[in-house]
Design goal:
The chain is α/β, with parallel strands linked by helices and 345 residues long. It is built from nine helices and 18 strands. It is 27% helix and 21% strand. The radius of gyration is 21 Å and the shape is globular.
Length: 345
């Protein structure tokens, strides 16, 4: 077994890559060398660290599926040369990116850890330093057999390592900005790093690592609210080229029992539009049929997203729609776990 692990840092942008101009007090992007210069403690790690950077860096609000493809291609291009990867990313869309990469990276046996910060790396009290140092430790960690401790796409923030496709940004100001509401944390950091080994996913396949780059974004999100009108729902379901809809329902998967909603959803379903039901609640699962207010959704052909996050549902649909035009297959695949993103009792 090698004495040292090697980790590749992938700089995409975000707050963690920003620095303050002493003259103007304004924030501007730093290159990777400047960011790393603020963290001399990295030299104390028994890890060989290299980096690549987007040029220009991208604010996370500007992240697009093409950005995910770019990250995936970087990982594929360096996969055999590194033991793990850390993706530095803005917080606003980090959960989307981590979810997307979890589906795009197939037969993954190495850690891919997303992290970022609430304060720029060069600012007093910044959380960037600890987040990055610990993310590198997690990406480099191996067991006594030399295998990766966490060989999946994850998100690390403050003191918690979460499965990427189970994470959600929950706070715009606190350092514990992310949470995994429906799945246990994979590791907790403190004086020691404590891994929850039974919750970590290990690929059983012997197939070679590969990436899937084709994503279809012909998706809409339909959030139900009291007083939503027939015209609003009809307009969304009539979008040209629409292939799938994420229906954000009340509670355990409920929606108004008005006849027009049933008819519109059934008509869309009959046209081949995949409609996935997820709850507006942060914690809990859709249980279609539990209440009378979800029976019409079942009759209309809406499929359950169970306890998937919105981010995972959106990116999983992009992934599935990019792989096949078989609507029946997509409806089946969306409701079963592909990368640990869903819990089915």
């Amino acid at each position: 077994m090698k004495n040292e692990s090697s980790v590749l840092l992938i700089f995409t942008g975000g707050t963690i890559s920003m620095g303050e101009n002493p003259a103007t007090q304004s924030l501007s992007p730093l290159d990777s060398a400047q960011v790393l210069s603020f963290i001399p403690e990295l030299k104390m790690l028994r890890v060989n660290i290299s980096s690549v950077s987007f040029n220009p860096l991208i604010d996370s609000s500007d992240i697009q599926p093409a950005s995910w493809v770019r990250i995936a291609e970087i990982i594929r291009g360096h996969y055999d040369s590194y033991d793990g990867f850390v993706v530095l990313h803005g917080t606003d869309t980090m959960a989307y990116s981590a979810s997307a990469l979890s589906f795009m990276l197939e037969n993954l046996t190495k850690p891919v850890i997303f992290t970022g910060s609430q304060l720029p790396v060069g600012v007093l009290r910044s959380d960037a330093k600890e987040n990055l140092i610990t993310a590198i430790e997690l990406a480099a960690a191996r067991n006594e057999d030399g295998e990766a401790m966490v060989p999946e796409v994850c998100l690390f923030f403050e003191d918690k390592l979460m499965r990427g496709n189970r994470s959600t940004k929950r706070n715009t100001e606190a350092f514990n900005a992310f949470a995994s509401f429906n799945y246990p944390e994979l590791a907790k950091t403190g004086v020691h790093i404590r891994y929850a080994s039974s919750y970590i996913h290990h690929e059983k396949t012997k197939q070679s690592f590969s990436i899937q780059k084709k994503l279809d974004t012909n998706i809409a999100i339909l959030k139900i609210f009291p007083g939503i009108t027939e015209a609003t729902v009809k307009a969304i379901l009539s979008i040209t080229g629409l292939r799938a809809v994420v229906l954000e329902s009340f509670g355990a998967g409920n929606a108004p029992r008005v006849e027009w909603l049933f008819k519109l959803l059934k008509n869309a379903n009959d046209k081949g539009i995949v409609i996935v039901n997820v709850t507006q609640c942060r914690s809990g699962s859709v249980e279609m049929g539990r209440y009378e207010t979800s029976i019409n959704l079942q009759k209309a052909g809406v499929v359950s997203g169970y306890d998937m996050t919105l981010e995972a549902t959106v990116t999983k649909l992009m992934y599935l729609l990019g792989q096949t035009n078989n609507v029946k297959e997509i409806r089946t695949q969306i409701s079963i776990p592909l990368r640990g993103e869903i819990t089915i009792d």
